[in-house]
Structure formats: C-alpha cells, structure tokens
UniProtKB/TrEMBL annotation, chains A, B:
InterPro entries, A to Z: DNA-bd_dom_put_sf (IPR009061), MerR-type_HTH_dom (IPR000551), MerR_fam (IPR047057)
Keyword DNA-binding (UniProt): yes
Protein name (Swiss-Prot/TrEMBL): MerR family transcriptional regulator
Domain (HTH merR-type): residue spans on this chain: 1-68
Keywords: DNA-binding, Repressor, Transcription, Transcription regulation
SUPFAM superfamilies: Putative DNA-binding domain
Stretches for region Disordered: 115-141
Phylogenetic placement of the source organism: Bacteria, Bacillati, Actinomycetota, Actinomycetes, Kitasatosporales
Pfam families registered for this protein in UniProt: MerR_1
Top-rank lineage group of the source organism: Bacteria
Amino acid sequence: MRIGELSERTNTSRRLLRYYEEQMLIVSARMPNGYREYDERFVDRVMQIRGLLDAGLPIRIIKQILPCLDKPRTIHFPDATPEMLDTLRRERDRMTERINCLIRNRDSVSDYLDEVSKGWRPDPDQERDRHDELIDAHSAN
Amino acid sequence: MRIGELSERTNTSRRLLRYYEEQMLIVSARMPNGYREYDERFVDRVMQIRGLLDAGLPIRIIKQILPCLDKPRTIHFPDATPEMLDTLRRERDRMTERINCLIRNRDSVSDYLDEVSKGWRPDPDQERDRHDELIDAHSAN
DNA sequence: TTGAACCCTCACATATATGTGAGGGTCAAC
DNA sequence: GTTGACCCTCACATATATGTGAGGGTTCAA
C-alpha cells in the first residue's frame, strides 16, 4: 500500500510516517516512481509505535526496543551488546513504573467516576474528619 | 519547606516546580520575603505529577484529573459538570489503553531479555554456548 | 560586613513530536 | 490533454516540557 492508505489505516499523518522513517523506526520500499510502498505488517508496526509514543517513550528508546518485539527475534540476538541489554532492562523497569503509576491513577479516576455515578451527595455529618484525612491524602506516587 | 528542598526530594528542577505552579498544577504559599513555602503533601503531589507526565499525559489533562485523586475527594464533587465527567471517562479509557500497550510491550521486552539470558549470557561465568550462536547470527545477516 | 547559599522574576534557548505549505512530479479518468 | 488525487522533498512553524542565565533581593554565619 502507499503512504495515504497507511496513513488512514493507522490514523497517522503522512508527515509523521515520513518522520518515523527518517528516525529509522520504519523503512519503506520505493516504487519505480519514487512512491513509498508498505506491506500489511506496517499497519501494526505503526500502531505499536504510536502506542509507545503515547505512553511517553521517546523515539530514541522505541528504536532500541522495537527490534526485540519482532518475532522471530533470534535474528537480533547478535546485536545485543551488554550495554544494550542494560538499557533494555532499565527501560523494562521504567515501563513497569509507568504501568503502576498509570494503574494507580486510572483506578483513582475510576473510583471517582463510580462514586459520582452512584449518586454521591455531600453529607455534612462527614465533613468533620476532612482535615485529618488531608494529611495522608497522596500516597505512593 | 522551600523550593530547594522540594526540588531535591522530588528530583525535579526548581524551574519545573515554578512551571507547574504557573500551569496551576500546584499552588504555593508565600513567606513574607516572597519565597515559596510548601508543606509535606507536595512531595507526593509533585511525584504524582511527574509520574503522569512521564506516562504521557499532558499537563492540560493532569490538571483535570488531579482534583479527583484527592482524598477525601468530596470537596470536588460539586465541580463535576457532565462535560467534565465525559472528559474523565475518556481519559480513564485512554489510560487503560496506555496501560495495555505498555504491558504488551514491556512483556515483549521482558521475554526478549529472558530468552537472551537463557541462551546467551554476556555474564562471563556462563559463556559456553555463545560461539555457536554467533556463527548462526552472522550468517543470518 | 562580606560571602555563600538560598530565593525571586523574566527572558531566551533547546528538544521532541507534529503541522503546514510551497514547488513540483505521476497517473488515471474524463 | 487537462484535471484531480495522489506522491515527493524541503523548509519553516507550533506546542510542550525543560534548561540556562542574567539581574537582583534575603538570610546567616564567619
């Protein structure tokens, strides 16, 4: 497929697809007329890139972890220098931290929405303790 | 505490703490000499903000969800307009998508690391098999 | 009373991801 | 053979989060 179709199917501007290519996250074949040509695999690949970008990973890091996400991944073993593996372990751990942070906060938002939809109403009898609770309000972020 | 201590305890530059204040993510009291004064709660609050920023949420959104994360949150219920609740639901869903994307990719990285460490340990104590795999590797390229 | 170590505001600079548009090919349909 | 919908490169613009530094006040201890 050409860039326009990939753009529509991944909801990503042509500009960005060319940018990702420039940043070497993807590679494109070229048709005789110079047009870029992509095969089906790129739909998922681009959506994966977008997901990771949206989750806060910079292109520099995405470029490093993408090769590990290919299956079969054996081809990429030889590229794995010890420094690279260290980077990957660090990134894996950062991703886990991000996940936990997101889960905690998503659950808070979720709880909030649940309580609102249950029809919470201000109860003057419970306002007494508010000050005390404020003290240990934010935990573990 | 003053901004320097908060900065050290949250590993966040003074510049950014002032920026978060300008963006109304946090508020500071002022001492008579004009210095900012923070109480303990801000340590967690700032770390929460940093976690969310790192997870890809823009300040605009963080500003909207932060009030829901306060406990007790009752104070903020009356502010919840229907549009606001819609935004929150959308953000909750986006956070869930981010979480799933991160988990998928983290697990892939993790699997990769596991396989590398099973087959090819850069650790000098366990280098037995490396030679064969290196041969394979080079012919695959 | 001087100096170090804080703090203030303000402004300009940088990196990253993204938008926009100019100037110009390619190609299929009318 | 003209038109419209694609594609190309290149360059400039924008938004967001962050760094850096100038110019200047405050506090405290030697």
